[in-house]
Design a protein that fits this description.
Blueprint: H1 5-14, H2 35-47, E1 51-55, E2 62-67, E3 75-79, E4 98-100, E5 103-105, H3 109-128, E6 135-140, H4 149-158, E7 165-168, E8 176-180, E9 182-191, E10 195-196, H5 206-224, E11 228-229, E12 233-234, E13 236-244, E14 250-251, E15 254-263, H6 269-282, E16 288-297, E17 300-301, H7 307-318, E18 325-328, H8 334-339, E19 344-346, E20 361-363, H9 364-378
Parallel strand pairs: 3-6, 3-7, 7-19, 8-18
Antiparallel strand pairs: 1-2, 2-6, 4-5, 5-20, 8-17, 9-15, 9-16, 10-14, 11-12, 13-15
Helix pairs in contact: 1-3, 3-9, 5-6, 7-9
The chain binds zinc ion.
Length: about 375
């Protein structure tokens, strides 16, 4: 059987590198940034007579396209991030899409170019038969894997979500995901006083102070286990990076740590910062302060009877597929769209267990099922 339009698109997408540099400077310029892939999708949308443009920085653009139905039931935004994680650890050629045993291999095949491929193939089908029943905002956003600058560019461009609801494609094996935790990152700084190590008492060791803070944070992490969300379990706290000091014979005056905090739906930046400061105060640590605390991805909490869930359930049914609700452990851009005012869900082909891996792949059947789902959704089939 020849490959479907979605699979042909997906092969083209995988062959176009769009690696998120993730703050590194050692990745070849030929494979970093979303510009090549964004331009490819832009051309595809324009060929479908969809009003589309690039927004954001020229080297890290997002694509936004809008198509209106004559007799629309609502406006849906479908957002499929353009970037992939780096490819250093891959055991297959990341940009040479191969199909074998019902799987399409390559970086981004699963996370999350399969979602965009299914959407574009569905738009081709629906528009060619003139059956569009929903206004659609097609978004390919940059920088999902690190800072979500693409979502912010898109929201600034549109002046808000501009949609009644949002579907963000991520690998959920076609489950409708209504809840996930958010992600906050905090940086703590210890300030001491430098001196010669032969007389440590003359200084104040910032690394020692930071170590005390690490222990206070691990107490806080244990306390978080007591506060549980019925769907998502407990929030978490993990110290990921520590740095400090210049030489063994210098008492260090500066040390830092970076920590990751996974948030439950009712937790925000103010609360996270407040809890850290309280933990430090309780341990009597005054040489360490929170230098930065930022929610990178807000949590997602959409009611099971909300508009996006009902619309997706109906479309899955109309496409002959099983509708199943779920939660995921990872953060997505859907939380940002929800925070901006549009109820949101996450859904897409492939398994998160294959994302970011050395042999990333997506099941061909799931991409084709997602296409059928999008066709039913956009035609509002009953
Ligand atoms: Zn993703």
């Amino acid at each position: 059987m020849p490959p479907s339009a979605a699979i042909r698109h997906l092969r083209d997408y995988v062959a176009i590198p769009s690696v998120n540099p993730m703050g590194r400077d050692d990745i070849a310029a030929e494979i970093t940034g979303e510009a090549r892939y964004a331009n490819h999708v832009l051309e595809q949308l324009r060929r479908l007579h969809i009003d589309a443009e690039l927004v954001g920085a020229p080297d890290r653009p997002s694509v936004v396209g809008t198509v209106r139905a004559a007799d629309a039931v609502d406006t849906v935004m479908v957002a499929s991030h353009l970037d992939t994680v780096p490819v250093d650890t891959m055991e297959i050629d990341p940009f040479d899409p191969r199909v074998a045993e019902g799987r399409l291999y390559g970086r981004g095949s699963c996370d999350t170019k399969g979602g965009m491929a299914a959407l574009v193939a569905a738009l081709e089908r629906v528009l060619s038969r003139g059956r569009l029943r929903r206004n659609v905002i097609v978004v390919g956003e940059a920088d999902e894997e690190l800072g979500s600058r693409g979502v912010n560019d898109v929201l600034a461009h549109l002046g808000g979500p501009g949609a009644d609801w949002v579907l963000a494609t991520e690998p959920t094996e076609l489950r409708i995901v209504t809840h996930h935790k958010g992600i906050a990152v905090a940086e703590l700084e210890a300030v001491g006083k430098a001196c010669h190590s032969s007389d440590p008492g003359a200084g104040h060791n910032a690394i020692v102070e930071l170590s005390r803070a690490v222990l206070a944070l691990s107490d806080l992490a244990r306390a978080l286990e007591q506060r549980r969300d019925p769907k998502l379990g407990a929030g978490t706290l993990s110290v990921g990076v520590v740095s400090g000091g210049q030489a063994p014979n210098i008492v260090p005056d500066r040390a830092r740590l970076w920590m990751d905090r996974r948030l439950l739906p009712d937790e925000d930046e103010k609360q996270v910062r407040g809890e850290i400061e309280e933990a430090l105060a309780k341990a009597g640590i005054d040489a360490v302060h929170v230098a930065r605390c930022r929610v990178e991805k807000p949590p997602l909490g959409t009611a099971p009877d909300a508009l996006p869930v009902r619309a997706c359930e109906r479309a899955l049914g109309a496409a002959g597929l099983r509708a199943e609700l779920g939660t995921v452990a990872f953060g997505t851009d859907a939380g940002l769209f929800e925070l901006a005012g549009a109820p949101s869900v996450v859904m897409g082909p492939g398994s998160i267990a294959r994302a970011h891996t050395a042999r990333e792949y997506v099941e061909v059947d799931q991409v084709d099922d997602m296409t059928d789902f999008f066709v039913a959704l956009l035609e509002d089939a009953r």
